[in-house]
TrEMBL record:
Domain of life per record: Eukaryota
Keywords: Iron, Metal-binding, Oxidoreductase
Residues annotated as domain Fe2OG dioxygenase: 204-304
Protein name: Fe2OG dioxygenase domain-containing protein
Length: 355
């Protein structure tokens, strides 16, 4: 708009190092303009009735048999790219403790949080509002603590904030174990040997992101996070009971309703790439809300920016004369640098790497 200096307003906000929570603590009832999102075309598409609206499956990892689990994982991965799992082996008290740790970090004195405020993507532990705040078309209403937990060199225990150190370490250990199990199921769902994706080192890296979505005075104008796909192989997401996560499926937004004790699993871009589009990286977003704070923890399986000689491309065993490679070979760091530089601009990152 004429006369609106977005860059200066964003910089003034970022200089406070107080994040979105700082705005809420200051008592704002009108959100800054750079948080305004244009309407999403999928919001105005013709809705389906509740009876035939697609649902995100909830898969019992312990109670229905291996073949049935693999088939449900395959169906979900080939369609919306999202499913939830229960009986996953992570104690429920750890899930609760992890969510409480996120609240504790974000609700402590600002002076303590400011020690971790950074926009250097190579920092192993950093706190900020939107990694792409200065380049995104519109900012998202959330603050994030990012911890690079694997592989080495990763964040050391003493680098992690006191408010959540022990629970981050314990929860990460459990999620890495679960990730190995999920990669086994995904390998079988692709018709490959059980250890294929683990041997491909898809589970080697893990980045732990704690998201805090404060209550928003004008939730209809913004989003907790705009539509996007995740940049890793898979994401293991822990969400609280407030809700707001939605997946784009058949051109409509489907709620991923919180299920007590469940974890959300979604396919990321790199798994879509190596599966040659057999599995779909799910487009998703989070709606802002007025009741918050909403809390979630997203664990991305990706080695991120850490240099590695390994390149990833479509899996040879999935290719035929009729099924040719759809993507180039890519280094993990190459993909992540491009994704980070582009930001959440609404354009699919994978398109840049298509043949």
């Amino acid at each position: 708009m004429a006369g609106y200096d977005r860059e200066s307003e964003v910089k003034a906000f970022d200089d406070t190092m107080a994040g979105v929570k700082g705005l809420v603590d200051a008592g704002v009832n009108v959100i800054p303009r750079f948080f305004h999102h244009p309407p999403d075309a999928s919001d105005i598409s013709e809705p389906t009735t509740l009876s035939n609206r697609p649902k995100i499956p909830v898969i019992d990892l312990a109670g229905i048999g291996r073949e049935a689990v693999v088939e449900l994982v395959r169906q979900a991965s080939e369609t919306c790219g999202f499913f939830q799992v229960v009986n996953h082996g992570i104690p429920l008290f750890l899930l609760d403790d992890m969510l409480e740790g996120v609240r504790r970090f974000n609700e402590q004195d600002l002076a303590v949080k400011m020690r971790y405020y950074s926009r250097n993507r190579l920092d192993k532990v950093r706190f900020n509002t939107n990694f792409d705040l200065f380049i995104s078309p519109a900012a998202s209403w959330r603050d994030t603590l990012t911890c690079q937990m694997a592989p080495e060199p990763a964040a050391k225990a003493e680098d992690l904030p006191d408010a959540a150190r022990e629970i981050i370490l314990e929860y990460t250990r459990e999620v890495r174990r679960l990730g190995g199990v999920i990669f086994e199921l995904l390998s079988e769902a692709l018709g490959l040997k059980t250890e294929y994706l683990n041997e491909l080192e898809c589970g080697k890296g893990l980045t732990h992101l704690s998201h805090y979505y404060p209550p928003c005075p004008e939730p209809e104008l913004t989003l907790g996070i705009t539509r996007h796909c995740d940049p890793g192989f898979i994401t293991v997401l822990l969400q609280d009971q407030i809700g707001g996560l939605q997946v784009l499926h058949q051109n409509q937004w489907i709620d991923v309703s919180p299920v007590p004790g469940a974890l959300v699993i979604n396919i990321g871009d790199l798994l879509q790439l190596i599966s040659n589009d057999k599995f779909k990286s799910g487009v998703h977003r989070v709606r802002a809300n007025i009741i918050g704070p909403r809390v979630s923890v997203a664990c991305f399986f990706s080695t991120s920016y850490i240099p590695s000689p390994r390149r990833y491309g479509p899996i040879q065993e999935l290719l035929t004369e009729d099924e040719l490679p759809k993507y180039k070979q890519v280094y993990m760091s190459e993909y992540c640098f491009y994704s980070h530089a582009k930001g959440l601009d609404g354009r699919p990152t994978l398109d840049h790497f298509r043949v």
